[in-house]
Specification:
The protein is mainly alpha-helical. It has helices at 3-9, 58-67; strands at residues 46-47, 50-51. 23% of the residues lie in helices and 5% in strands. It has a two-stranded antiparallel sheet with strand order 1-2.
Length: 73
């Protein structure tokens, strides 16, 4: 599954999704200081003002979202 699809697999009313094509990250202020790793598509799971290290697989993103304590209802 694509990383975006993982976010939408489960109802998470408190999750905010910001995307960038990686070319001009200044368009999305939330992503401005979060460089895209050379591994391709990546996701940051953040709580408050603190973000975990980026993940780049669907399974790693599922794990990070579940571990973050984000409510699913």
């Amino acid at each position: 599954a694509h990383l975006t699809e993982v976010v939408h697999e489960t109802y998470r009313p408190t999750v905010f999704l910001a995307q960038s094509n990686g070319q001009d990250r200044t368009i999305v202020p939330l992503l401005r200081d979060r460089p895209a790793p050379d591994t391709g598509a990546s996701a940051y799971v953040c709580r408050g003002f603190v973000c975990d290290r980026p993940v780049n697989t669907a399974e790693a993103l599922r794990t990070a979202l579940n571990a973050s304590g984000v409510s699913t209802n």
